[in-house]
Amino acid sequence: MVTIAVLLKQVPDTTARITVSDGRVDETAISTWVTSPYDEYALEVAIQHKEASGASITAITLGPPRADKVLKDAAALGVENLVRVWDDAWESLDSNQVQAALSTILEGVGADWIYCGKQSADRNQGSTGPGVAERLGMACIVEISDWDVTGAQPSFTRATSSGNERLAPTPPIVLTFTKTETELRRPNVRGIMAAKKANIEVVGADIGDAQVQVVAHNPPPQKPEGRKFEGAESVPEVVGLLRNEAKVI
Amino acid sequence: MDITIIAETQDGGLHPVTAQLVGAASSLGASLTVICPGGAGGEEACGISGVGKVLAVTGDCFATFDGGAWAEALDAVAGGDIVIGAATTSGRDICARIAARRGVSIIQDITALSPGLNITHPIYSGKANQDLTVTGNCVLTLRANTFPPAPSGGTAQLSTVQQSGDVRLAVAEAFARASERLDVTDADIIISGGRGMGHPDNFRHLYEVADVIGAAVGASRAAVDTWEEIPHSMQVGQTGKTVNPSLYIAVGISGAIQHLAGMRTSKYIVAINKDPEAPIFKVADYGIVCTWEEAIPVLKEELSKLT
Description:
A: Rossmann fold; two-stranded antiparallel ribbon; globular; B: alpha/beta; seven-stranded parallel beta sheet; 9 helices; 18 strands
């Protein structure tokens, strides 16, 4: 019996402007929160896997109540079980705490195929997939760019320095996905109606103390204004500057 | 404080980022051990100034990449209060696992590091930076081309250790890359095209320039989403690749915020765009207001004269 879990994180829309006030990113200025783009690919493949295997999927998110939306969106695509891990006392969790929380839930679910994005679009770390795999004693394939989950033996392709490798792994395994050309499915009206009634289980977890403290968030340093030139006739001058001033060519 | 550095290897030798890891770690004033997965680049690592000891770790598991097996083997050999690796695909995987094995935190893709430990890393793909402190032991990965490399002239001792890990990933099939083209994440110079290129066929003009200067060709999300001929593997930006080359040439790219997020830390940025108000000019060191049709032939000719 195949059991699938997918880890989803809610992040600001990638077109959102990020502003910093009083040393922290101002989350109240973010109007649109979405499922982290890489996680959407993980979810798509998990659903393909479910359709081929008859498995059920548990979608798990770690986040405050607003993160319910990523679970409802997953439910609209046919995900059956929805779990949100959270404790109102939690603030900025470090990698150890995030992985402790997710591993506890995943152990309870008993998933043998765990899908997630290669990294979140907010923290950009890429630690959760392999970190959770290590804690659960599982193998992990990172940055999967192609797959075939239609048969009894799913296979996944990753890039290498010289090309690509296809792997046909034995579960239990964690799989992390990059963005690909695959078109993501959209929910239909029936799915959206069903998602409205879907139940979200909210659970806590023992995550221990934080080892990492956030000191401050800062906007990226502004570059000094560059020089602007007009027309193709300026190209030789710019090439000269690249060679003699910037010394990069 | 003891620091273990996991060497980044390529083609049986050291990747240049390894000397950068040593350079950054040296500033922490600690004793440095470099461990070389599969034994690659051991002699070379001994020659990096500041390195105290080099361990070449040889084992069957290093024949193919399995992050779990590599982490198991390397963690068995690695001492160190702090483990430092490169923020590459494999480095992030191995280091996340070593941190989980040790029950300590990991901070990835660090761009500034000072004793204390004070750490800075980009968040939201560079739309902001986060300053952190860590108490206790930890694992860190550092962004390539961000820290100055330690010079050569080291005379560390090389020891070989036999250690393997439990391999659970078998490669069913390997495919060579269809083209010999450089990937944007490996390139020191990148020339990227946006929707302003008008048609995917026009990217051949960028390839011609790239061939002259040994550059990789990238693309904006708008180009990747518009034309199926432009694969996502070329995409630079928040949902594509984050790049940090010496020179980034943006052609027909307006400079959407999510594109800037992926390339704004490039050392030098040249923008070629016919719209003088395009946001890309705000991050460009040298902006050229011009159509690509006029600028690219001159650029190719001028660059050809240099080499």
